[in-house]
């Protein structure tokens, strides 16, 4: 089910599926949009960079806003990436979430101008029912069981039935806690597995350093080398620094080479100082 948040109210559309949850869309005057130009290498860590820049981009306290973003274009000729930063006041999202929960529905996602809002604020509301809804389900189950007991058992056995129901409710609570603990363990193992798989798939530092050394043309020296498993950053001096982009893009191991900063005059005539970033190609 989809719900548009307009003027502080939710307008629902689509079939009400209990399993699917509600996808809330917030846009229009409720969001603020900023268009930014950043170095192309920044696209690998956009969320962290934009979070650090919120104080400058947001007209209100960064702690009171949530944000997402959209990559509009990658301008390789200018070595820049064009990004749309989408901001919303935290209180707007909180109001929309309260409307969903008040309707007895489960929140699935929140979208700002068509982009999903990824924030720890929403995480507890995306999985299963809330504690309030879970308590209501348990109480309803107890009420049904009590009603059946009134019809099926004699008056002298009602105390025993109530004791049995209480024990059953306690067992259900314990089972629910175990299920939640197992789910958290599964998520942790999945995250660790993905991290280890990515580390195993990435070439080693030795392989990367050897490939960089082979590719460097004569008259080029490095004074800084950095590799994080996905991106290589090089700083150094060269007699023909402008040619380095084509040199590394022409290798099988590297792609998307770009200067992170303009080249400057080196310590000797004809020597240029450069700051270059490139991605490590995926696959064998």
Walkthrough of the structure:
It is a single chain. With 284 residues, the protein is an alpha+beta fold. It has helices at 46-52, 54-57, 90-102, 123-126, 131-152, 158-201, 205-215, 244-249, and strands at residues 2-6, 9-13, 22-26, 31-39, 65-75, 80-89, 107-112, 115-116, 220-227, 231-238, 254-259, 264-265, 272-280. Strands 2-1-3-7-8 form a 5-stranded mixed β-sheet. Strands 9, 10, 11, 12 and 13 form a 5-stranded antiparallel β-sheet that branches. Strands 4-6-5 form a 3-stranded antiparallel β-sheet. The longest helix has 44 residues, at 158-201. Residues 127-133 have low confidence and may be disordered.
Topology:
Elements: E1 2-6, E2 9-13, E3 22-26, E4 31-39, H1 46-52, H2 54-57, E5 65-75, E6 80-89, H3 90-102, E7 107-112, E8 115-116, H4 123-126, H5 131-152, H6 158-201, H7 205-215, E9 220-227, E10 231-238, H8 244-249, E11 254-259, E12 264-265, E13 272-280
Parallel strand pairs: 1-3, 3-7
Antiparallel strand pairs: 1-2, 4-6, 5-6, 7-8, 9-10, 10-13, 11-13, 12-13
Helix pairs in contact: 5-6
Task: Give a quick rundown of the structure.
The chain is of the alpha+beta class. The chain contains 8 helices and 13 strands.
């Amino acid at each position: 089910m989809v719900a548009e948040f307009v003027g502080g109210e939710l307008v629902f559309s689509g079939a009400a599926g209990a399993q699917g949850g509600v996808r809330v869309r917030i846009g229009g005057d409720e969001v603020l949009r900023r268009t930014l130009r950043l170095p192309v290498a920044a696209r690998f860590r956009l969320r962290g960079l934009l979070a650090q820049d919120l104080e400058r981009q947001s007209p209100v306290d960064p702690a009171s806003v949530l944000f997402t973003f959209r990559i509009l274009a990658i301008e390789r000729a200018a070595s820049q990436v064009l990004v749309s930063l989408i901001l919303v006041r935290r209180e707007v999202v909180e109001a929309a979430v309260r409307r969903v929960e008040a309707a007895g529905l489960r929140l699935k996602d929140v979208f700002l101008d068509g982009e999903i809002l990824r924030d720890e604020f929403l995480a507890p509301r995306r999985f299963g029912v809330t504690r309030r809804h879970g308590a209501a389900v348990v109480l309803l189950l107890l009420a049904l069981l009590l009603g059946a007991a009134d019809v099926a058992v004699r008056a002298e056995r009602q105390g025993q039935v109530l004791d049995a129901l209480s024990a059953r409710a306690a067992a259900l609570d314990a089972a629910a806690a175990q299920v939640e603990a197992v789910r958290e363990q599964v998520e942790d193992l999945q995250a660790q597995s993905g991290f280890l798989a990515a580390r195993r798939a990435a070439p080693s530092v030795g392989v990367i350093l050897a490939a960089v050394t082979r590719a460097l043309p004569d008259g080029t020296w490095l004074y800084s080398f950095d590799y994080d498993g996905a991106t290589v950053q090089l700083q150094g001096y060269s007699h023909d620094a402008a040619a380095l982009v084509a040199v590394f893009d022409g290798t099988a191991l590297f792609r998307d080479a770009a200067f992170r900063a303009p080249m400057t005059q080196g310590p000797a005539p004809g020597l240029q100082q450069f700051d270059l970033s490139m991605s490590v190609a995926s696959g064998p």
